[in-house]
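Morning, I've got a small favour to ask if you have a moment. I'm working through a protein record and want to make sense of it properly. The fold is given in discrete form, as structure tokens running alongside the sequence. Can you walk me through what the tokens say about the fold? Thanks so much in advance, here it is:
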Amino acid sequence: MSTLIHVSGTARENYTTDASAQEATQNGLVFNLSNQRISYVFRVSREGILEHLHFGARVSPQTDYPSVPRRLHRGCVLEFQDSLDYNLTDIPQEYPVFGTTDNRTPAFHAQNCAGNTTTVLRYVSHQVVNDKPALTGLPSARGADHGASETLIVSLGDAELNLLVRLHYTIYAEHDLIARSVEINNQSTSSINITHAMSSSLDLPCADYEVLHLHGTWAREMNAQRHAIPYGRFVLESATGTSGNVHNPFIALMDSTTTEHHGDVIGTALVYSGNFAISVERGEFGAVRLTSGINPFNFAWNLAPGETFTSPESLHVFSADGLNGMSQVWHRFVREQISPPAFKSQPRPTYLNSWEAAYFDIDEDSVLALADRTKALGLEMLVVDDGWFEGRNDDTTSLGDWFADAKKFPNGIESVAAKVKAKGLKFGLWFEPEMVNPDSQLFRAHPDWIIGVPQRSSSKGRNQLTLDLGRIEVQQYLFDCIDKLLACGDIDYVKWDMNRTMSEIGSFALDASRQQETAHRYLLGVYALVGRLVAKYPNVLFENCASGGNRFDLGMLSYMAQTWTSDMSEPIGRLPIQNGASYVFPPSVLASYICPVPSHLNGRQVSLQTRADVGFFCAARGLSLNANDVDQDFEALAAHAQHYQQTAQDAVEGSFFRLRYDQNEVCWQLMSADGARIYLGYFHILSEANLPLRRIRLVALDPQQQYRLADNDHVYGGDALMHLGLDLPHVCAMQRSSADYLPQGDFASRIIVLTRQ
């Protein structure tokens, strides 16, 4: 018997008759998906339309609900197919379509064999299954064991088109989240051309909502912005072939009075890495519709008879405890149900990356010299970045030729990997498999393997083109190249990069009627390739990277345990990026390294301490410095490496909280999984004269316990730290001692440690 999904009432025998002659019944089908904290409720109307009732704090299953869609007569508003006073423009729906009185953004839109785009989806049947079925060809959140997740599948049909749409809803006992996806099955004898196949639609009542989203660009990703919802549509989207760094595929919707720690929040994120759209629309009567899924712009899918199209998964979180409460739900869910199981609780190795140490100028001797420095510093892994493969001396050549450069590595990468491993280190290797340089053996042999359009010149980014991974032969070539290297058994880590987005989007392998399928087919190919590799090499740590955060999403994180958060490795530039990422992503999936100074990106000169302190709040921690930089700060770097390793488990499994963020001051809290250790990161950007004394209230402590401050052995009660707060180090340019002050000057930081007694 289901414990999370409750179905009450009965279905009508026929939903296609004249609904105006039917009386509304009290015992119609109602679906209530509830755990101990949240509920998602909807019902079947007498017309067979799925009507949304509630998503938010738990409401117990009942025979009737106090607030349901009302049937009203409105002037100059159409009535749905002769249903008296029933207009879909004013009805909250689960999966709205176009053409039958609802003129808001639809979840589904398609052209049928008659050439029109009218669809009517009515209830057909439902079933409840234990756990959570995986999606065909797409990443998705895992179900929970031992009955701790259940899935409701509701089938809707259009009898005229012989079209069946199955809506999937999964609820978890221990996570305050609903997972939604859609399967569209063509049961007719004619093709249907789909232009909208959104993963979910959520209709919410009229209220004073605001949205929070994450915007940016390369090296300035994840900037959080919050604003009111106007009448009309606000759309976050990507049309670049990636989920993108301009808008992350996430949005939070909340009451205008909601704060970090108080108020209701709905968070939505897609488990998808390509062209997406999240639309928030305030309609003419004030209600708000949130849709999420594949971007309908430049998308179409020709669904042949008997075929099924599966949408990506959309996840909806609810918290009554403000934005920080929402983040805690996301963080725990990402660790438990998204991250690859082998790595979700595994401390990440500290590492030295060769990129900013050497750029393309590497060979076997220099790699082994870097390995010696890596070992001497007490780090655990050496990563060989770009420049190791055939002819790769700059970024104009050789992408696609994934075999070691014989001049630089005469004995092959396998040999140097074994030598590094013999020194007691792990070994990592950089790839950019999805790209090709025109100056490469691969392109000369297969010029038609790229994303491109006949008779048009292909635009380039970083001197490279995008391979068409929608083609099986391209997937197989890349799998064979990477598999041959990983098969040696000495490669522990792969950095999977992608340094350009799509242009001239087309496939030389598809006919004219299917060209708008190219971007989605490409992504299905990426998932297929990566899925094969991680299945064969489950103990290799894969890091997702796309010019930093250009494809930072839950889809890639389903295969790869961590993401290179941004190419902005300078710590002050990193602060807003990591702060924004924390709305969805836990520290366990973030990667960072200590960069050179002055920064190669913005020229900023920042202390080693601050560079290390910002990186501390990522689970994957390392450095990328040349030999002179290492020698200059050797002892300090070794101390940071030791500290990183001592706290590695807490970075992976701990809880992260945003305590304060403004243009000049940032304060974060990381607490170990058992609550015994608290790390308070305090960052002050620009120094000023005679500033006021500051304090910060900690969160989530045990009010009955005592906590010792490592700096001076003072002991404070958890209740006092949460309600009175802790004094922060003073910022002053005229210091008389070092005990209570931040370091002098700009860009100062301190990590304060407390331990539970």
Q: What stands out?
A: The chain is about 20% helix and 30% strand. The CA atoms of residues 123 and 156 lie 5 Å apart. Residues 20-25 have pLDDT under 50 and may be disordered.
